[in-house]
Amino acid sequence: MTDPNPSPRAFSASAPLKGKIAILGDKSISHRALMLSALAVGTSRVTGLLEGHDVLATAAAMRAMGASIERTGDGEWVIDGVGVGGLLQPREALEMGNSGTSTRLLMGLVASHPITVTFTGDASLSSRPMGRVIDPLSQMGADISASPGGRLPLMVRGLAPAIPLAYRLPMASAQVKSAVLLAGLNTPGITEVIEPIPTRDHSERMLKGFGADLNVETDGDGTRRIHIRGEAELRPQTIAVPGDPSSAAFFIVAALIVPGSDVVIANVGLNPTRAGLVEVLQAMGGDIELLDPREVGGEPVADLHVRHSALKGIEVDPAIAPSMIDEYPILFVAAALAEGRTVTTGLDELRVKESDRLAVMAAGLTAIGAQVEESADGLAIDGTGGDPLPGGATIAGHLDHRICMSFAVAGLVGKAPVTIDDMGPVATSFPNFEALLESLQA
Ligand code: S3P
């Protein structure tokens, strides 16, 4: 499904970006806050929830399975949970839109409840691999029938009681880890996830915060062993969701590459499993200062002061990839403006995101005049050394919010405008992206 009413928009060379903005709530944390609140016994309250389409798909799904979820006039979300084991059979298929996180985590929840749920999604989501969650959840006893290639639409028939599993992740994926942990919540005994390469740990932090019996051991080689005791009772919580570093990323790079910019980005989550981009941009010479480091909702947060900088190309260590997996598209834009060559590797996971982000970024950057070589698992980019990019092309966003926003930022340093064929997908994760950009240009 492509949008019958696309919203094309051209982005052109920008005046310096100046001022202070605050970033909306973290998408990953927002999904988890809704899911766990909906499984607690009693009333939870969430502030700062990201009200993007992906998170709203999770809210609708949890409502369809019995939770009461209301938004108050002042933007607080009040959730009355059904208790672990209490999810109800939804009357209709759950429509997941564009959201892989909703789909994979909810498949985990359903897998250990005695309900049968059909999941559907848009064209992008329906092309993404679900085998990575079907495998472990089937081992736990769920009966899953998927479309060819392990794709959506698919149906999960849960098993209760499910069978506890010790599962070693075959790829670095927080969604797969979380699906198994969430299935383990309603499974008797101990479910274990073995994670050789650490990924974002919001599920672990929040499950503990809700009172689940979860512990993490780290082996000598860095492998994490996460254990959760099932048939848990979750206690309702009050949660403040910190700002999303993956959204802040677009303004960090915009401020670094638009000459004369000086911007403060407030309320940016800096969980070490998410903060890789800041480290890489600083290594490239980016002037990014952390102000007022503090804790929000059990997560480290700071305000970021970012000034226009002369960036230098570097070789990016593939080991940092899991902590900035969603930030490569915008890093590639920064690299296109840096002096010298930036080389990235170890990024095969980018090929199965909302789009094939290696192919789509390589094609789009080439179309606007950047020097890009695509390899099987990364891009090598020779930057302009700060000179504007030629621009002057229309970019297909492929229903991928981060592609749309990355090329919008590239347009700010284009000699000729860069047009995005449809900015609609941006509302999945960053509904006020254009408004914040305009406020910094005013
Ligand atoms: C997410 C995990 C990552 C990330 C996605 C959100 C999460 O996906 O790309 O945007 O909230 O767990 P993978 O688990 O596929 O790496």
From TrEMBL:
Its EC number is 2.5.1.19. One of its GO terms (molecular function) is 3-phosphoshikimate 1-carboxyvinyltransferase activity. It is an enzyme of class 2 (transferase). Phosphoenolpyruvate binds at residues 27, 100, 128, 175, 357, 402. Keywords: Amino-acid biosynthesis, Aromatic amino acid biosynthesis, Cytoplasm, Transferase. One of its GO terms (cellular component) is cytoplasm. It is found in: Cytoplasm. Residues 14-435 form the Enolpyruvate transferase domain. Catalyzes the transfer of the enolpyruvyl moiety of phosphoenolpyruvate (PEP) to the 5-hydroxyl of shikimate-3-phosphate (S3P) to produce enolpyruvyl shikimate-3-phosphate and inorganic phosphate. This is 3-phosphoshikimate 1-carboxyvinyltransferase. It comes from Sphingopyxis granuli.
